[in-house]
Amino acid sequence: MGCFSALEDVPEQVVEFVRRQVELPEGTLPVHRAKRTAKHHRGLVRKRVGVAYGQAEARRIAEASIRKEAAAKNRPADLINIALEEVVEAGLELPGFSTFDKMASKIRTEVDAPICEDIHDRMSPLQRTELARLLEERDSDGTTLFNRLKKPAKGPSWSHFKNLTRRMEWLDGLGDSAVWMDGVAARKITDFAGEADAGTRRRFGTARPSSASR
User: Fold this and answer.
1) How far apart are CA 126 and CA 138, in angstroms?
2) How many other C-beta atoms can be found within 10 angstroms of the C-beta atom of residue 103?
3) Which long-range contacts (CB under 8 A, 24 or more apart) does 157-166 make?
4) CA nearest 104: which of 61, 70, 72, 71?
5) Are 143 and 131 in contact (CB under 8 A)?
6) pLDDT confidence of 9, banded at 50, 70, 90?
7) Contacts of 14 (CB under 8 A, 6+ apart)
8) How far apart, in whole angstroms, are the C-alpha atoms of residue 133 and residue 135?
9) Is 131:214 a contact under the CB 8 Å cutoff?
10) CA dihedral 62, 63, 69, 74 (to 10 degrees)
11) Residues 177-186: what's their mean pLDDT?
12) How far apart, in whole angstroms, are the C-alpha atoms of residue 173 and residue 167?
């Protein structure tokens, strides 16, 4: 795991295995009588596996790598894995997973906000209004117009082709997404598209996320 677990989180099977290996009596608990002893034992383990303890430096490396990669990647798991690799390569003990998780979420929001603002600012007021309307107005089948955007093409037939052509004309009428997304990494656009729903809209604000989702 690259870090020390809380003693209460160590599986009983592991405790029993270690107890038998060092020939301690049954019922021996995985606790230390003194904090100094625990600190000494952790030092021995770090020396054995070849890592150093430096939480501040580990967090600095993790934050720098996440911030760099967040410009092109959006999935928290991808950002966390990259940060883990960087900290391990630096020979440092890993912070707890919750630290990486909170860091990735915070930095991703900070990086995404100006990207979405730039996309928003490239749109005309009319285009913003039309995109917002996708989540408000209903199509003939009762779903929102936004749902029409996500419908896949149907089987090959002349009627389906004509319907798809009309849908593409409607879609093109919303605006030039290539202009809106100019300079945004392709991987980022794909991830934005995967998150495109009302929840994404709430995440970034009233108008901005619907522009990013497009």
Assistant:
1) 19
2) 20
3) none
4) 70
5) no
6) confident
7) none
8) 5
9) yes
10) 100
11) 90
12) 10
3-state SS track over the chain: CCCCCCHHHCCHHHHHHHHHHCCCCCCCCCCCCCHHHHHHHHHHHHHHHCCECCHHHHHHHHHHHHHHHCCCCCCHHHHHHHHHHHHHHCCECCCCHHHHHHHHHHHHHHHHHHHHHHHHHCCCHHHHHHHHHCCCCECCCCCEHHHHHHCCCCCCCHHHHHHHHHHHHHHHCCCCHHHHCCCCCHHHHHHHHHCCCHHHHHHHCCCHHHHHHC
Q: Mean pLDDT throughout 142-169?
A: 85
pTM of structure:
0.66
Q: Which tokens go with 167? A: 């849908």
Here the tokens at position 66 are 């996440």
- The band of 197, judged by pLDDT with boundaries at 50, 70 and 90, is low
Task: Determine the average pLDDT of the residues in 145-154.
Answer: 80
